[in-house]
Amino acid sequence: MQEDTNHEQSEASTPTRIAEDPTDSFDLEHPERVEVGVTRGETDLEFGPPRDYPDRADVSVRPEDDGSHRLVVSIDAMAGDHGTGHADVTLTPAEARALRDHLDETVRWMTEADEAAEPTQEDER
After folding, report:
1. How many helices (H) and strands (E) does the chain have?
2. Which of 23, 57, 93, 105 could form a disulfide with 34 if both were Cys (CB 3.0 to 4.6 A apart)?
3. Which tens digits make up the pLDDT trace of 59-71?
């Protein structure tokens, strides 16, 4: 995938700058749904269901430290005192926008039926 070299953004798509900390992290509501798997040769290592259920997990987004205009998405999952799983994905601006678009489209598709089923104010009258 080619790197996006167009640094012009419309005013509507310009994100709000994070003043103090460029890392935005949030805890996942259902850490037990996180699965981290690694395959090396014939050995499979897995963390998550059905073995150890994570009791805490978070996703963080931050700029890469070297100033290369890349974004790092990290997923951390912890189970008990010793079980930990970690994954980092480094994205170009174009890849990050593609991920954003895929997330937006998937959420829209998933919630479209829910929104259609909810009564509007006019329906309640």
Report:
1. 2, 6
2. 57
3. 899 998 887 889 9
pLDDT band for position 9 (cuts 50, 70, 90): very low
The predicted-structure confidence for 87-118, as pLDDT tens digits, reads as follows 888 999 999 999 999 999 999 988 987 777 77
Nearest alpha-carbon partner for 71 in 99, 104, 36: 99
Is the dihedral angle over the CA atoms 15, 18, 21, 26 positive or is it negative? negative
Residue found by looking up tokens 């919630």 in the block? 111
- pTM, two decimals, is 0.56
What is residue 114's predicted lDDT score, i.e. its pLDDT? 77
Give the DSSP H/E element, type plus range, for residue 94.
helix 93-117
76 phi, psi to nearest 5 deg: -120, 135
Q: Report the candidate in 89, 23, 32 with the shortest Cα–Cα distance to residue 57.
A: 32
Residue keyed to tokens 């829910």 = 114
Under the banding of pLDDT at 50, 70 and 90, the label for residue 5 is very low
At residue 53, the 3 state secondary structure works out as coil
Do β-strands 43-47 and 36-40 pair in parallel, antiparallel, or remain unpaired?
antiparallel
